[in-house]
Amino acid sequence: MKTIKGTIANKGLVLGKIKVFSDEKINISKEKINDTASEINKLDAAVKKSIDELDKLFEKAKVDAGEEEAQIFEVHKMMIDDIEYQDEIRRNINEEKDSAAYAVSLAEEKFYEIFNSMDDEYFSQRAKDIKDISQRLIKNILGIRNSFNEGLEEKVILYAEDLLPSQTLNIDKDKLLAIVTVKGSTQSHTAILAKSMNIASLVNLDSAFDKSIDGKTAILDAYEGSLIIDPDEKLLADVKDRIEKEEKRKLELEKLKTAKAISKDGTHISVYANIGNSKDLPLVIKNGAEGIGLFRTEFLYLGRDSLPTEEEQFKEYKYVAEAMEGKEVIVRTFDIGADKKVDYLNLPEEENPALGYRAIRICLDDTDLFKAQLRAIIRASHYGNIKIMLPMINDVWEVKKAKELIKEIFNELKEKNIPFNENIEVGIMIETPAAAIISDDLAKEVSFFSIGTNDLTQYTLAVDRQNEKIARHRDIHHKAILRLMEMTAANAKKNGVKISVCGELGSDPDLTEFYIKNKFDKLSVNPGQILELKDRIINS
């Protein structure tokens, strides 16, 4: 029996056989070619096939993991079509007389080094994406198929040195018990996808990649952070008993679908859902969400060549509002910028996009763009209980300016006799230390706060959440973060403003007592976490 420790990416307990996923890089020999036109044709065909595959992956990811996680495949499409990347490949073919596959491998090497050497973590993360798209192109040029799913007759614990996002999605979910990667962090695309698909996952193991464990019986205990290979009979019996109890617990949790989350001291904390678009609604309704605490509208803007029209947005917001049948729907105005790029907006390249031109900062500059979205939201408010939430607010003047624009829209709609809710509430995200510290002033301008703990953690600790090299410095329970949240909650209560959390910490089991003690009004989480959270509140 051997125990390997790792970092928990998504909790769970499974027993099964290990399947080693060894995706070694395809080595292509340099060879001179004479027919460059034929190689260009091979490249063009591979690009077309790759884009078709990415379209299918995008749709699959939306179903399996949600809209937000699916966006990585839209990014991959843009990267494959990138002019500089394509020019480099074609230059290698036309001038250096390289085969199409070898030309792509050279471009992969060049751009991987460029991105991997950058100090900015967003761009260095793109190095993995370059590898992903390049290997996809090479396989399509050479006619190599992804055969991992073939021959699998039972569910397995997938074990890999590392996994690219597309590899994770290509694996049949019905054949997966769990995912284990030797490398990676809890913030990698693969870990996020595993969590969104509710697959138990362990990353960043304390042991080197070992192909010899293929086919061995193992226990993945993603509560304790352990992969146990060749467990003894006593441990096997214990784990089988635990798994049986877990299945019974899932059935018990389903009974909480219509229950209110009221703690033992009588505190009611509403449990809401985060969504990316209307396709997330079935899971929201299935799990008994009391409302939608975060509708991430930027995903209506991503993965397309032009802006969504006001009418497109209106129909989407109206559909969600009606589907929720009077329950609260908090619509966040778009948070584009930083890690969410939209080519058609022609946003400037920035050395540090996380601290740059994003969200409300774009909106208050481009008021036509902003007003089109606000009009769509306000018009949809006639059909349900919609509220407006502004992201990345740092100062009172930003809120006042946004509210002035909302008043302008009120007047415009009245003139055209277009119905809307004149009492629509406006709230803000608390995502920076600055916003938390002046939350007493901000509270005088809004009806509610929602703490975005992902960004608040990043900006408070000066730790990029996607950088695995500094993951040990990312203490999500750091006193500074909890004190900022406590301060914000106190200022909200003092001013009669509702307070909620919509980031990852909302579902953190270690903070349930903290939320009860500080009288948070609601917690908004991924739909799959609703029932567990209700249960924790009720039993706290």
Mind explaining what this structure looks like?
The protein is of the alpha/beta class. Among the domains are: 118 residues, Enzyme I, Chain A, domain 2; 201 residues, TIM Barrel. It contains 19 helices and 16 strands. Strands 1-8-7-3-4-5-6-2 form an eight-stranded mixed sheet. Strands 9-10-11-12-13-14-15-16 form an eight-stranded parallel β-barrel, surrounded by five helices. Helix 3 crosses helix 4 and helix 12 packs across helix 13. It is globular and about 70 Å long. The two termini are 38 Å apart. The model has no long low-confidence stretch (mean pLDDT 90).
Q: What's the quick description here?
A:
By secondary structure, this protein is an alpha/beta fold. Helices cover 44% and strands 15% of the residues. Among the domains are: 25-142, Enzyme I, Chain A, domain 2, CATH 1.10.274.10; 265-426 and 501-539, TIM Barrel, CATH 3.20.20.
